[in-house]
Amino acid sequence: MECATDPTRTPPEGRAAARPIFLVGMMGVGKTTIGRQLAAALGREFIDLDQAIEARCGVRIATIFDIEGEAGFRRRETAALDEYTRRPGLVLATGGGAVLSEANRRMLSERGCVVYLRAGVDELYRRVARDRGRPMLRAEDPRQRIVDLLALREPLYESVADVTLDTGDQPIIQVLRNLLALLPDRAAAQAPLTE
Ligand SMILES: Nc1ncnc2c1ncn2[C@@H]1O[C@H](COP(=O)(O)OP(=O)(O)OP(=O)(O)O)[C@@H](O)[C@H]1O
Ligand SMILES: O=C(O)C1=C[C@@H](O)[C@@H](O)[C@H](O)C1
Ligand SMILES: [Mg+2]
Fold this sequence. Notes:
- The protein is an alpha/beta fold.
- It has one domain (21-175): Rossmann fold (3-Layer(aba) Sandwich), CATH 3.40.50.
- The chain is built from seven helices and five strands, in the order βαβααβαβααβα.
- The protein has a five-stranded parallel β-sheet, sandwiched between helices.
- α5 packs across α6.
- It binds adenosine-5'-triphosphate, (3R,4S,5R)-3,4,5-trihydroxycyclohex-1-ENE-1-carboxylic acid and magnesium ion.
- (3R,4S,5R)-3,4,5-trihydroxycyclohex-1-ENE-1-carboxylic acid is lined by residues 27, 50, 61, 95-97, 134-136.
């Protein structure tokens, strides 16, 4: 789906509904961090899918993996994605594996503007190395795990992306600036960006 507002969906107040924006990409690429600030800059509601699932279950994602396995987590993820991708105007940060199922990919690409945030293996590893809360990185060699996951997932992220943005080694403010410049409703931003 393209990223402009949808003129066929007119909310009661008469303004065209803002297309929801979905952030996808690998663990640690910055979906939660950038998503929250993007939503603030655009004056939109922000939801982090991982945090929504945790709030609903009352436990951390690592605990869901421990008790229900990855398959149990993925079922919860699909149910939450189905709910939140229907909300107009949202900025939604998805989990790193949200693109794995075809049903999820269809929801993402049909219901909103999908932004793929990219980063290289070393950058991703640097960002997640100190964080023990990511069950997919419980491996003898977490860096190699990132290599393997990226190889599998990169084509899937690309297949749903309307906009792809390299976060490289750029500071968060620069990533945000670049993203806002790529989105057509930049003019709707309510908060000026300050250094
Ligand atoms: N451009 C950046 N430069 C430096 N650090 C960054 C950048 N983007 C994010 N980070 C840092 O990387 C860490 C991971 O970011 P974040 O939690 O937003 O990633 P995520 O994509 O939501 O990961 P997950 O899929 O596991 O939820 C955080 O500590 C964040 O501050
Ligand atoms: O990359 C993944 O498969 C995951 C990423 C996180 O956002 C969480 O959704 C969970 O830890 C699984
Ligand atoms: Mg996150």
